[in-house]
Design goal:
With about 300 residues, the protein is of the alpha/beta class. It has 8 helices and 11 strands. The strands form 2 sheets. The chain has a 6-stranded mixed beta sheet. Strands 2-3-1-5-6 form a 5-stranded antiparallel beta sheet.
């Protein structure tokens, strides 16, 4: 059973690697379409964060904020120390708590200002390309990662490595679309899709690459109830399928979070609780209600 891992203070939200803001995939980054390089697969399992911190450029720290390692920066995450080997890991917490920053460390989209992050044996700074070749990242906003004009072309882009023949790739893309409730939309502009259709398309393009590590940042935000449940089941079924070994996701859906093997609760840029999924959710519920009660007793506004 995982134990709580105390971490140092850090406030404020942010997603900036080594002082440079990153809100979209880096140039050339395409959800696992790069060819892996270096060591043989299976060299190490799981995710290791050792003293990982994220700092962002900023003015003097406000009350409750901490300065970063370099003058003129603020600490927004960490230090985080954790070893995640469970197949399914949920990250929960309030808006702006640092959840997205934490999971973006796993794909090198955000790089630590100090400390290290290793994903299945590979360092996210020294071996960024190899990490991204094995990691699929689903963003909250699907338009961040849908880069081709039409739905079919976007899926085909993810299939280039496994389907060299253009016609075979097109057929495979249509099958992928149909499996995600998007049949007949291969030639539809991504801008003519609904928000929910775009989110399902973004997920389809990531799953088409069969990533070793699947990371999803609030993947059901734009979906109706039926498709929310469908996508949750699909995500939870991925570890152990194909190359996929591990799923890490952020969510505000606590029922979804409770189905994880392990749950991390993030607040103020720190991992404040670490337990099996159901226990992490119960701890978070109690903490939220306790804080609301204290605010009501003192008459203070939400902080």
């Amino acid at each position: 059973m995982p134990t709580a891992r105390p971490t140092g203070p850090a406030p404020a939200p942010g997603t900036i690697p080594r002082g440079v803001a990153t809100t979209a995939p880096a140039a050339g980054h395409r959800r696992g379409t790069e060819r892996p390089a270096g060591r043989a697969p299976g060299a190490a399992a799981g995710i290791e964060l050792r003293g990982a911190v994220v700092d962002v450029p900023g003015a003097a720290p406000a009350p409750g904020q901490s300065p970063g390692a370099v003058p003129g920066t603020l600490r927004v995450l960490g230090p985080v120390d954790a070893t995640l080997t469970e197949p399914v890991v949920a990250v929960i917490g309030a808006n702006g708590s640092g959840k997205s920053t934490l999971v973006r460390l796993l794909d090198g989209l955000v790089q630590p200002a100090a400390g290290t992050v290793r994903v299945h044996g590979r360092d996210t700074v020294a071996e960024t390309a190899a990490v991204r070749a094995r990691t699929g990242f689903v963003f909250t906003d699907p338009l961040v990662q849908l880069v081709m004009p039409t739905a079919g072309e976007d899926v085909e882009l993810s299939l280039r490595r496994t389907h060299r023949d253009r016609r075979a790739r097109r057929r495979a893309a249509e099958e992928v679309l149909a499996a995600h409730g998007l049949a007949g939309l291969a030639d539809r502009s991504i801008y003519d899709l609904s928000g929910g259709q775009r989110q399902r398309l973004a997920l389809a393009t990531v799953l088409a690459t069969d990533p070793v590590l699947l990371v999803a940042d609030e993947p059901t935000t734009l979906l109706d109830l039926d498709w929310t449940l469908e996508v949750q089941e699909l995500l939870l079924s991925r570890p152990g399928t194909g190359r996929c070994r591990q799923l890490v996701y952020t969510t505000h859906d606590l029922d979804f979070a409770a189905r994880a093997d392990r749950g991390l609760v993030v607040a103020g840029g720190r991992v404040v609780h670490d337990a099996p999924g159901p226990e992490a959710v119960e701890w978070y519920r109690r903490d939220v209600h306790d804080r609301r009660a204290r605010r009501g007793a003192t008459g203070r506004d939400r902080r």
